[in-house]
Every structure is written in structure tokens, then in C-alpha cells.
Write a structure and sequence with these properties.
Elements lengths: L3 H11 L7 H8 L4 H17 L13 H6 L3 H13 L4 E5 L5 H8 L3 E6 L2 H13 L4 E4 L12 E4 L4 E2 L2 E2 L10 H8 L5 E5 L13 E7 L2 E8 L5 E7 L4 E3 L15 E5 L1 H6 L12 E2 L7 E3 L8 E11 L2 H10 L2 E9 L5 H8 L5 E10 L2 E9 L1
Parallel strand pairs: 1-2, 1-4, 2-3, 4-7, 8-10, 16-17
Antiparallel strand pairs: 5-6, 7-9, 8-9, 10-11, 12-14, 12-15, 13-14, 15-18, 17-18
Helix pairs in contact: 1-3, 2-3, 5-6, 6-7
């Protein structure tokens, strides 16, 4: 795949300020074949895009779908550390794509065998895995792989069709039946899924980790040899894990002095009641993931706002408030309300030196607009 011509063309493409420009293509075609130029410019452009995910992006090889679907480097590293903590020494990545997760396993000191059906993608995965110290990439179907006894398995089933992303398990590759068989087996298994996975398809008896990376909910992972149940983990400078053991029943009551917006991973894990252990929290609405309190609550699992005013949810009333308070920078947040914040912001016509956050929320007293200050 990476012939000498492609290697040289890629080096030239990486020197272009804009690999996607017509000028870049014209300059490179004076030295290299059209096929090599097309490949090199694509790789150079993908490397630029992938810099937000990978520290070694400038040396890696990508497919357009591969870099988008690949785990963020810090997330893959966290996952690999869980394999190490479980005593795993060898992991088989069945359906490895461009090999970014395999790289994290190798970086963690694990022996890695990766399996990929597409030969060209497998060659890219081998190139990338070599950057992390090496491992073996096998061209073949995940279903035909034969990991040895004692080896762990990682699965990231493809969830795309020609129409786009899908949660129809009949469209998964490898098949959902294959995934479930591994989760029910004796070996240590982790399955990566999107954070929006329908909970009705999740099997019993697994640990489901909803992962938030620096504020973005990025995945749900299923683990078969760990304590069952849903958990949330926030990855940043230090991983923070929220477990169901702190759970309790929450009452529903009117807006208090503070409002808490739980992290998306906490919401997906169904752990609103565990956000602040010991804090007196309540729900504004039994079906909406906003919490409130009378006292300021310190928790890394939610963003806290001080409620300055509670207004009726009425566009004319809000426009008057924005005008009277000379608000020019306006953040609008909402849950459970059919409104487009961008459209509403235009209707409110913010203008002036002040800034404000308005949170639209359903409450036991009806829909309200909460004027807030971030804590």
C-alpha cells in the first residue's frame, strides 16, 4: 500500500499549507502519479483533521470513516488501563479498523493481535500499530478469529449502513449475536458502542460505562467480567467514576437557589440521584434531567448555576428582560422544551455589554425561564 512513490508523495503533501487546494494537487502531479497524489493529499488532509484526537496523527494513516469513528486517544488509553487492571496480558481487537484502539493496548504494554476484513485498512492498522511498538494485524473476518485461551477480546462493531448510522442490530458488523456470545463467554471482553445505544438492546449481567471526555459524551462500553450495572466516568485530567452505590430517591419540587445540569454521561447512566453524595437535591420535573438545591453543591458530575431570577416562559417577556438588562451575550439552554435556542436568541435581539444564561426548564409550576449565573 505505501509504495516508495506514495511515501514521497505524502511527504510532499504534508509540506502543503492546504492539501485540499487545487494548487497543491497541481504541484504534486508534476512529480508523482495521479493515483499517488490523490492518496497522499487525502492522507495529509486526514492527518490535519485527526490532530484533535491523536498525538501521533502526523505519522498515522487514516480512512475517512476511520478517523471519525476511532476512539479519542485519551479514551482508548483509559480503556486499555482497565484491561491491564483486570490482569489481561494479551488482547485481540476483532474489527480493528485503522488500529487506534490497538495502539492504546500496545502503549499499555499488552500483546496485541488485531483483525480487519479490508486489506487496505488492515495495512494502515499495521502501520499505525507499529508506531506504538508493534503487534500483529490479520486480514480476515472477526467471526473467524481464534483467540487463544486467556486472551481478552475487544469489539467495536460497525454501526453504519449506506443510509448512515444505525441502531438496528441486524446491521451490525460483526453481528450482534457474535458480540453477545463473547460477552456471555469466559474470557474478558469489552464492547464499544455509541453513547446513544438503546438501553433495551443491552444484555443483562454486564457493566455499562457511559464515558464523557472533557464534557462530550463519546461512548458506552460493555464489560463482562466486572460488577454489573450502569456507571459514568468523566475523563479529563483525572478520571472520575460515578457508581450506583450512592443512589437514592429524589423528590420533585420547585426551583431552588441553585440549578445543576448533570454531565451527559451521568444522565445516560441514570445516576442523577448519585450526583452529589449527601447533598439535598431534587428534580424540577420527574422526566427532565435538571436538579436543584437550596445550598451550593460542589460536584464534578454537574455544572452548577446560581438562579438569579425565575421568569415566565414567554418570548415577549424575555425580550423585554434582555433589553432592560442590556444583555448582548446570551447563552440559552433547554431540556424537554420544543424550541430552537438559536432561533429564540434571534427573537430576543440581545444587544449591550452584559451577558446572561437563560435556562428553559419544565418545573412542577410549569415551564419557566431561569436567569442564571455559572458557578
Amino acid at each position: 500500500m505505501t509504495t516508495a512513490g506514495r511515501v514521497d508523495a505524502l511527504a510532499a503533501a504534508m509540506g502543503e499549507a492546504d492539501p485540499s487546494s487545487l494548487g497543491a494537487g497541481e504541484r504534486l502531479r508534476r512529480q508523482f502519479s495521479a493515483d499517488d497524489v490523490a492518496w497522499a493529499l487525502t492522507q495529509a488532509a486526514l492527518r490535519r483533521k485527526a490532530e484533535s484526537k491523536f498525538t501521533r496523527a502526523a505519522q498515522m494513516l487514516f480512512t475517512p470513516d476511520g478517523w471519525e469513528q476511532a476512539s479519542r486517544e485519551e479514551v482508548a488509553r483509559w480503556r486499555a488501563e482497565r484491561f491491564v487492571a483486570a490482569g489481561v496480558t494479551e488482547v485481540w481487537d476483532l474489527g480493528c479498523g485503522i488500529g487506534s484502539d490497538a495502539m492504546a493496548f500496545a502503549d499499555a504494554g499488552l500483546r496485541v493481535v488485531a483483525v480487519e476484513l479490508d486489506p487496505e485498512t488492515a495495512a494502515m492498522a499495521q502501520h499505525n500499530l507499529d508506531l506504538a511498538g508493534g503487534g500483529d494485524v490479520i486480514v480476515g473476518r472477526a467471526e473467524e478469529a481464534r483467540p487463544p485461551a486467556g486472551a481478552a477480546v475487544f469489539l467495536d462493531p460497525a454501526r453504519r449502513t449506506a443510509r448512515g448510522r444505525t441502531w438496528n442490530v441486524a446491521d451490525f458488523t460483526p453481528s450482534w449475536e457474535f458480540v453477545l456470545e463473547h460477552l456471555a463467554g469466559e474470557r474478558f471482553v469489552c464492547v464499544k458502542l455509541g453513547p446513544g445505544v438503546p438501553k433495551e438492546i443491552l444484555p443483562d449481567g454486564v457493566q455499562t460505562m457511559f464515558v464523557s471526555h472533557r464534557g462530550d459524551v463519546v461512548e458506552a462500553s460493555l464489560w463482562n467480567r466486572l460488577e454489573p450495572g450502569s456507571r459514568a466516568v468523566l475523563l479529563g485530567d483525572t478520571p472520575l467514576e460515578l457508581t450506583p452505590e450512592h443512589s437514592r430517591e429524589l423528590r420533585v419540587a420547585p426551583v431552588g437557589r441553585y440549578l445543576l445540569e448533570p454531565d451527559g454521561a451521568v444522565i445516560r447512566a441514570g445516576l442523577l440521584d448519585a450526583v452529589a453524595h449527601g447533598g439535598d437535591l431534587w428534580l424540577l420535573d420527574p422526566h427532565i434531567a435538571y436538579l436543584s438545591s437550596a445550598e451550593r453543591v460542589q460536584t464534578p458530575f454537574a455544572t452548577t448555576f446560581e438562579v438569579l431570577e425565575v421568569l415566565d416562559y414567554d418570548a415577549k417577556r424575555l425580550r423585554t428582560w434582555v433589553r432592560d438588562n442590556a444583555v448582548g451575550t446570551l447563552e440559552i439552554k433547554k431540556r424537554g422544551i420544543e424550541v430552537d435556542p438559536a432561533t429564540l436568541r434571534r427573537q430576543l435581539k440581545p444587544k449591550g455589554p452584559a451577558s446572561a444564561t437563560i435556562i428553559l426548564a419544565r418545573t412542577v409550576e410549569g415551564t419557566r425561564a431561569l436567569v442564571c449565573r455559572r458557578i
